[in-house]
């Protein structure tokens, strides 16, 4: 089932965005261990530059909001300068809030894989260092089970000769990034497009997944 969802996600890559799901305001720092009032689901993904991860998830139907931020480190209220310097242990990530009636964690997993390079450790595209490594952060035991099953099924599919190095980690305190990082691709479309192109993200995704964007 998970592999079928992934194949559907691969087929959908590059389709036009039906709506922008970015949040108008950022949620407060949150470890995400429960959905507020049970109204929404929460998931957290790291795929290198969080501008790109946010833009990718905003295209997924059922996503309510996306918040770039930092997770997995030890420094309280880290800044972008600290995290990008690799001194806090945090990873750039995006916290996704979604409508469980319209999508699921399994579908988000399937949408996530084709947006990253799962074969290269401590790097995503032109961004180097453990702060840019790919990871799935689980918020409960069921998310952990689904994430591990999804990774195992992809590894067993025979698509890749190399091992999948994307980590599956427990969600810890999540700190929203500075305001200028929120919706960066919308606020600064030319700069964002220049960065994404020059970072080689889509070229590498085409090489890894056999898709063009």
Which key terms come to mind for this protein?
213 residues; globular; 19% strand; alpha+beta; 8 strands; two-stranded antiparallel ribbon; Peptide Methionine Sulfoxide Reductase, Chain A
Explain the layout of strands and helices.
Elements: H1 2-12, E1 41-47, H2 50-57, E2 63-71, H3 80-84, E3 91-98, H4 105-112, E4 123-124, E5 127-128, E6 134-138, H5 141-156, E7 167-170, E8 174-176, H6 184-187, H7 189-198, H8 201-209
Parallel strand pairs: 6-7
Antiparallel strand pairs: 1-3, 1-6, 2-3, 2-8, 4-5
Helix pairs in contact: 1-4, 4-5
Model description:
The structure is a single chain. This protein starts with a helix and ends with a helix. Helix 5 links the parallel strand 6 (134-138) and strand 7. It is α+β, with helices and mostly antiparallel strands. The chain is 33% helix and 19% strand. The protein has a single domain, classed as Peptide methionine sulphoxide reductase MsrA (Peptide Methionine Sulfoxide Reductase, Chain A, 2-Layer Sandwich), CATH 3.30.1060.10. The strands form two sheets. Strands 7-6-1-3-2-8 form a six-stranded mixed β-sheet.
Strand order of the largest sheet: 7-6-1-3-2-8
CATH topology: Peptide Methionine Sulfoxide Reductase, Chain A
Give the proportion of residues in helices: 25-40%
How many angstroms separate the termini?
Answer: 25 Å
Element string (H = helix, E = strand): HEHEHEHEEEHEEHHH
* SSE-based structural type: alpha+beta
Measured by DSSP, the beta-strand proportion falls in 15-25%
* Assigned CATH superfamily: Peptide methionine sulphoxide reductase MsrA
Q: What is the average of the pLDDT values?
A: 88
Number of strands: 8
**Number of domains as seen in the coordinates:** 1
